[in-house]
Amino acid sequence: MSAHTDTFVRDNLPPAELWPELKFTLPELQFPACYNASGMLDRAIASGRGAHPAVIAADARLTYAELLARVNSIANVLTREMRFQPGNRVLIHAPNTAMTLAIWWAVLRAGGVAVATMPMLRAVELQIIINKAQISHAFVDGALRAEFEAARAASPCMREVSYFGVGGDLDTRLLEADSLFETCETAADDPALIAFTSGTTGKPKGCVHFHRDVAAMAETFSRHVLRPQTDDIFCSTAPFAFTFGLGAAVVFPASVGAATAIPAKPGFDALADAIAEHEVTTLFTSPTGYRALTKFAGPKLASLRQCVSAGEALPKATSDQWCDATGIRLIDGIGATEMIHIFISARGEEIRPGSTGKPVPGYEAALFDDDNAAIEGAGVGRLAVRGPTGCRYLADEHQRNYVINGWNVTGDVYARDADGYYTFVSRADDMIISAGYNIAAPEVENALLGHPSVAETAVVAAPDAERGNVVKAFVVLKPDASACEAMARALQEHVKQTIAPYKYPRAIEFVAELPKTNTGKLQRFKLREGRP
User: Fold this and answer.
1) What is 321-352 written as a DSSP string?
2) d(Cα 3, Cα 92) in Å, to the nearest integer?
3) Fewest beta carbons within 10 Å, which of 115, 121, 446, 458?
């Protein structure tokens, strides 16, 4: 029943035998064969929410009726003026704005595959994503034109681009576009989005999710743990390019006809102002964010009713600090780009600070030992999960590593107690999680090695009270280079100019050599232990 005439994504899904076992155990997870996730907007209007706020942002304040009209207009521009066919991949390169949100829904409504990217990505990173997914269309914020055009020059698959914002053409096109659009009758298992994530090798992996997956995250975590109301106002610090932010600020509000408020600019001061100005009730951010917001406890945060923490492990101390300051106990959760959103969590009196929680209704979890055998009862092992969503990498051999015996094995080590609560222990790979961002150590190493003064380097996570971890680089300089503060700053600036700035090493230690085995393999554990 696929509506996709461009079958590239379907053709590059993993073989069926490498898919995880999908389980649809709840009545609300029984989706019709023909299903387009953008129908959430129609259902919100049909339920009487048409005149109620949908998006509150610096660039626009839209009711649900106005949002749907804009979504339809964008879909018409895409299909009538940009040579679009269902199944085409559409890059959305922009910060979180009302226009970005509307574009995302429009791509799904037209039968496209949305590929949202963080605005801070550099040309080399965009180029990899564009060519990996063979992206043919793009909507780009005009302020990001330079990096995008540099990537486009090395991406022959990119055909049609529309800019919006400063110097853009989209706003003019929308003035003449029809605000009615016949929704593409996609199949429930037609690809709706590709979310890119970086693994331990630093090479981005594209996680393909279907239209039913978009709905499934609302029908599991949001319905059963968050339990949003129509008068809620959501707010999130995560980019829409992160599925954590996509659920928090786009899908979950739309699923019940609630509103989403988008801060006018980055930063926790601006976030606190947005919470106060828009009377936000439901907040999504990382433990780093909650530590930074604690100083604003009082009138500025008085409207908050529910707060969700994810993106990195939530320390008990942070949970207690937030509860003491606001009276609100944080909802912790673990999710994965491969799973689309949170699959272990707890709410209300079921929350045990320090523990992530139990499997969200619709999901089940297990612990695997080193032989991929399930551990019974209490114990420690690699976390495995399955449910209505799961890992489907786009043409990537890592599918065999992530899906084992039908389970999604996330790369996290967890402990499970006798009551079935899961508690984070560590990451099983070299991914660095800093302030909620996943940073692949090899990617930072490759950037550093591009500097003419660097001979060798190794990057690890270093504990940090505010950010959880920071990126720390051990650097061996070439003989003609001097180890000094000026050199450290130069290397940091070089990384910022080479890859996304948030990935730069906040700590640099110059060493004479790196610890290696007799066969020349790097001993990262010594660096983590402070033994270079």
Assistant:
1) HHHHHHS---EEEEE-GGGSSEEEE--GGG--
2) 21
3) 446
Alpha-carbon distance of 483 to 40, in angstroms, equals: 57
As a whole number, the mean pLDDT across the chain is 94
Q: Residue 401, SS3?
A: helix
Rounded-to-integer distance, Cα 260 and Cα 253, Å: 6
- Tens digit of pLDDT for each residue in 298-315? 999 999 999 999 887 888
Structure tokens at 514: 């790196």
With tokens 């950010």, the residue in question is 467
- What is the β-pairing status of strands 233-236 and 259-261? parallel
Look at residue 79 and tell me whether its pLDDT is greater than 60.
yes
Of the listed ranges 67-76, 162-171, 260-269, 423-432, the least confidently predicted one is: 423-432
The DSSP code sequence of 179-242 is: S-------BTTSEEEEEEEE-TTS-EEEEEEEHHHHHHHIIIIIIIII---TT-EEEESS-TTS
> Is the CB of residue 366 less than 8 Å from the CB of residue 343?
no
What is the rounded distance in angstroms from the CA atom of residue 298 to the CA atom of residue 328? Answer: 12
Is residue 119 pLDDT above 70, yes or no?
A: yes
Residue with tokens 């998006």: 55
Read off the pTM: 0.88
Closest C-alpha to 254, from 499, 53, 517, 502? 53
Contact 440, 199 (CB under 8 A): yes
Gap between the Cα atoms of 355 and 496, Å rounded: 35
Please report the pLDDT score of residue 425 as a whole number: 83
Per-residue tokens: 446: 């490759």
E strand or H helix at 105? helix 98-109
Contacting residues for 302 by C-beta, under 8 A, at least 6 apart: 276
Q: Any idea which residue has 């968050």 for tokens?
A: 226
pLDDT at 520 (0 to 100): 58
Q: Which amino acid, residue 52? A: H
Greatest Cα-to-Cα distance within the chain, rounded to the nearest angstrom:
71
